[in-house]
Amino acid sequence: MTDLLEQLRAAVGDAHVLTDPEDVAAYVVDWTGVHTGRALAVVRPGSTDEVAAVVRACRGARAPIVPQGGNTGLVGGGVPDGSGSQVVLSLGRMRTVRAVDPVAGTVTVDAGVVLADVQAAAEAAGRLFPMSLGSEGSCTIGGNLATNAGGTAVLRYGMTRELVLGLEVVLPDGRVWDGLRGLRKDNTGYDLTQLFVGSEGTLGVITGAVLRLFPATPRHATAWVAVPDVAAAVALLAVAQERAGAHLTTFEIANRQALDLVLAHLPGAVDPLDEPSDWYVLVELAATEADHGLDDTLEAVLGEAVETGLATDAAIAGSRAQRSALWSLREGISEVQKVEGATLKHDVTLPIADLAAWTDAMGPRLQQILPGVRPVTYGHVGDGNLHYNLNAPVGRDDDLRAAAAQLSTAIYDAVAAADGSISAEHGLGRTKAAAAASYKSDVEVDLMWAVKRALDPEGLMNPGVLVPD
Ligand code: FAD
Ligand code: 2HG
Ligand code: ZN
User: Which ligand 2 atom lies nearest to the CA of residue 337?
Assistant: First the structure.
């Protein structure tokens, strides 16, 4: 292994091969704190050629590689296992925005560029890069592509895979595939770009990407709406779609439990409504400078909702500060759940028509397994995606950990029975690889392995992630 470390130092420079436990610490534990591993080394290449040299050196030494971007993943896919034999390949130094072409509507970036910096580069060119996540200040485009991230603008713009036109990837054998094309039309065979999207570092290291830009939408109309139940939220979605059409950008849900945690733990958070409600929806319409009338449209949506009993009250943002305060009630939930204590995450999608019945049935079933468990339910209801997360009964974190397997199985079985998915947007990582395989057909699992073996026959790219060992 000394040989490998020497080769890595030769490839990227001594300063960028970290082995001291203190230097390595932040790279071996994930955001949730649940996954903690050990690394042979953390390597920080500064260019695509250096990534290729690192991959070749690791291959020669048969050392597994764990690609890592901003390390904000929620399923343990970006941190090493406990063996101490894996090399973490961090893209953190590859942060160049290579080119912006507002007319073609493209931005070309290194994979280590932070999402917020891509948004800023688009804005500086008078365009919009619409992907928006609570972690956007630290997650990277490489990680977004590798997980096919979703977020709060999927309803209008789609998942990450709909926002990418071309990729540059270092393959497991160390060759570089240059697919950095910004073409809207390119039917020249299998779609290799899409193969790497959502592959969670198991097929190669993404080093660059051409992403799609859209017209800027500086106008917003935003409301925090109290709704009686999930069925009303879904019915309100239909009203908003009907009245706001393509302007409808965000339609997020949160239960009262989630808001209570935000009010308890997020400094400065204030309930914008006088009376408590069991459920809330954050609705946002967005439009270009030339489009007027968003406020009237939102008021019409909310007026109809209150008249028909779909909503009981609403707070409309009247300024940028108010808009940002409403957003913080939604975006703060992950963080405050962590502050509250042990959390069990479930990132599920269901057919939208089944969301209400599914949620109504799930609560009592979980109470039977662990009385007092607190469902902190929120997410992207417009996409049928709920973060059906659980916090422990107050003061009983160990009880949640003890019941975790039983609770997750009950939820996943119910998702499967409703033809949903147990991973809507966070990926499988180490947490859900085995569970996902158990709900897939043998044919589907065989196909996944066929792809994995074709590209990574030696199994050195992120082993144990996405496809279970
Ligand atoms: P990492 O965590 O570093 O890695 C994630 C996976 O991608 C790993 O398997 C890793 O091996 C692989 N990977 C990383 N970079 C590369 C690369 N260059 N080439 C190949 N493989 C690579 N996710 C959503 O989808 N929607 C949300 O709304 C959302 N909100 C979040 C809010 C918070 C507060 C937090 C903490 C997380 C949230 N996430 C969300 C999850 C997370 O931010 C996303 O999964 C994000 O895409 C991960 O990017 P990253 O750069 O941090 O990747
Ligand atoms: C969100 O929508 C993210 O806020 C994070 O996907 C969800 O922390 C979570 O479980
Ligand atoms: Zn989410």
Answer: 8
Q: Is there an atom of ligand 2 within 6 Å of 389 CB?
A: yes
Decide: 91 in ligand 1 pocket, CB within 6 A: yes
CA–centroid distance, residue 379 to ligand 2 (Å): 7
For residue 453, report the distance from its CA to the centre of ligand 3, in Å: 31
Q: How confident is the model at residue 292 (pLDDT cuts 50, 70, 90)?
A: confident
**Tens digit of pLDDT for each residue in 228-285?**
999 999 999 999 999 999 999 999 999 999 999 999 999 999 999 999 999 999 999 9
Whether the CB of 149 sits within 6 Å of ligand 1: yes
- The Cα–Cα gap between 213 and 103 comes to 9
256: β partners: none
**Is pLDDT above 80 for 1?**
no
pTM of the model: 0.98
> Are 429 and 77 a contacting pair, CB within 8 Å?
yes
C-alpha 72 to ligand 2 mean position (Å) = 11
pLDDT digits (tens, 9 = 90+) for 55-93: 999 999 999 999 999 999 999 999 999 999 999 999 999
Kindly give the distance from the C-alpha atom of residue 345 to the centroid of ligand 3, in angstroms, as a whole number: 11
| Ligand 2 proximity of 330 Cβ (cutoff 6 Å) | no
464 lines ligand 1 (CB under 6 A): no
Burial bucket for residue 454 (CB in 10 Å: 0-12, 13-18, 19+): exposed
Contact 430, 464 (CB under 8 A): yes
Name the residue with tokens 């996954």. 35
- Average pLDDT along the chain: 97
Of all residues in the chain, the percent with pLDDT exceeding 90 is 99
196 CA closest ligand 1 atom index: 20
Residue 468 has pLDDT above 90, yes or no: no
Expressed in angstroms and rounded, the spacing between residue 151 Cα and the centre of ligand 1 is 11
Ligand 2 mutation target, pool 159, 344, 347, 425, most atoms within 8 A of CB: 347
> Mind listing the domains of the chain with CATH numbers?
2-90 (3.30.43.10), 97-215 (3.30.465.10), 219-334 (3.30.70.2190), 341-417 (3.30.70.2740)
Report strand pairing: 106-110 vs 97-101: antiparallel
Tell me how far apart the terminal alpha carbons of the chain are, to the nearest angstrom.
Answer: 24
CB neighbourhood size of 8 (10 A):
28
- Of 75, 65, 19, whose CA–CA distance to 42 is shortest? 19
Query: CA-to-CA distance for 181 and 179, rounded, in angstroms?
Result: 6
**Within a 10 A sphere around the Cβ of 438, how many other Cβ atoms?**
13
Containing 127, the helix (H) or strand (E) segment is: strand 127-128
Query: Ligand 1 pocket test: which of 27, 68, 337, 389 has the largest number of ligand atoms within 8 Å of its C-beta?
Result: 68
